[in-house]
Specification:
- By secondary structure, this protein is an alpha/beta fold.
- It folds into 2 domains: 2-144 and 309-339, Quinone Oxidoreductase, Chain A, domain 1 (Alpha-Beta Complex); 149-286, NAD(P)-binding Rossmann-like Domain (Rossmann fold), CATH 3.40.50.720.
- The protein is 28% helix and 26% strand.
- The chain contains 11 helices and 18 strands.
- It has helices spanning 40-46, 95-98, 139-143, 145-158, 174-185, 199-207, 221-228, 244-253, 274-279, 292-303, 322-330, and strands at residues 2-6, 14-18, 28-37, 56-57, 61-69, 81-84, 87-89, 109-110, 122-126, 130-132, 166-170, 189-194, 212-215, 234-239, 254-262, 283-286, 313-317, 336-339.
- Helix 4 (145-158) packs across helix 10.
- The longest helix is centred in the middle third of the chain and has 14 residues, at 145-158.
- The chain starts with a strand and ends in a 5-residue tail after the last strand.
- The mean pLDDT is 97.
Length: 344
């Protein structure tokens, strides 16, 4: 089968190879991949800015159909449409695993970085990490369950948005617009910021319910936020761009005692004014990927149409065109870019 792997350091370490289809262990299911999304983490892996164990098939945002079931598996069958947690291997015995916090397990290996992932025609996963896709959710929409679950973790489980809060979302990419929709569903009045390069993204943010959008390189963001919030600043700020300038802008735009939530990954150390955070008594939190509770809530929200992910799917590429697909993500063309390994 065709698969896109990270085999060594550097962009030249990304290779499209013909590898054997995975064998299915008694506790596993074999999944035919319908589509797999290219995530910012995949870009960080390509550029050696995120830990991985080469050689490894990349990709962790996906939807697929079960085509083979291990002998010890119950509750799943051939033909089931599924998505899954990214934490494929954990010890299941440490404090964090016993608390349901599998992403924090010291022995965790994740799909697409520690074990083979979804940029392939087929993938084998432990049955216990699979979730069935609701009947009224399309396979393309289901691909975005993973990033949505990550934002559930940040917005709902780790962060807090109260009805009436002014909420800033800095960075109007896929992650930013999922964050915006969750904050809005929680009762927040959401302001989305980006640059003039993000014009179309900001337009979609307005269509999805943002009360205001701001191009930070064309408008005075501090003046506009002050006018919108009665000079107070925002109650909650979600940094979704993974950029130092965005992080510090969020800090300045927050009201005193506001909540700063780090969503984006930087891939490097950044400068951040912790003295200002202290003198403003800023509360700070974050979220690292997602946990089982995040997935349950994300799928429920998709099923009940509380978020709209369909407009966020911009392009589909076969694996053969992986260079063009990666380039489109790095150039911020559209929103979510999908691989379709089996041409579905």
């Amino acid at each position: 089968m065709k698969a896109l792997l990270k085999v060594r350091e550097g962009l030249e370490g990304v290779e499209l190879l013909d590898i054997a289809e995975p064998d299915v262990k008694p506790h596993e299911v074999k999944v035919k991949i319908h589509a797999a999304g290219i995530c910012g983490t995949d870009i960080h892996i390509i550029h050696d800015e995120f830990s991985y164990k080469p050689p490894v098939v990349m990709g962790h945002e996906y939807s697929g159909t079960i085509v083979e079931v291990g002998t010890n598996v119950t509750g799943l069958q051939i033909g089931d449409r599924i998505v899954s947690l990214t934490a494929a291997v954990t010890c299941r015995a440490c404090y964090y695993c016993r608390s349901g916090l599998y992403m924090l397990c010291k022995k965790r290996l994740s799909i697409g970085s520690g074990v083979n992932g979804a940029f392939a025609e087929y993938m084998a996963i432990p049955a216990e990490i699979a979730f069935k896709i609701p009947d009224n959710v399309s396979m393309d929409e289901a691909v975005l369950t993973e990033p949505l679950a990550c934002m559930v973790r940040c917005v709902i489980e780790r962060g807090t948005v109260k009805a009436g809060d002014y909420v800033l979302v800095s960075g109007p990419g896929t992650i930013g617009l999922l964050t915006m929709q969750l904050a809005k569903a929680s009762g927040g009045n959401v302001i989305v910021t980006g640059t003039s390069h993000d014009k179309e993204r900001l337009k979609l943010a307005s269509e999805l319910g943002a009360i205001a959008t701001i191009m930070v390189d064309k408008e005075d963001v501090h003046e506009k936020v002050a006018a919108l919030t009665g000079e107070m600043g925002v109650d909650v700020a979600f940094e979704c761009a993974g950029a130092a300038a965005s992080a510090n802008s969020c800090l300045h735009l927050l009201k005193k005692t506001g909540l700063y939530v780090q969503v984006g990954l930087y891939g490097k150390k950044i400068e951040f004014d912790l003295d200002l955070a202290l003198t403003k008594e800023i509360n700070m939190t974050n979220g690292f990927a997602s946990e089982p509770t995040s997935w349950e809530r994300a799928l429920r929200m998709l099923e009940n149409k509380q978020v709209n992910v369909a407009p966020l799917i911009s392009m589909k590429w076969p694996l053969d065109e992986w260079r063009r697909a990666i380039e489109s993500v790095e150039n911020k063309e559209g929103f979510k870019v999908l691989f379709v390994p089996n041409g579905d």
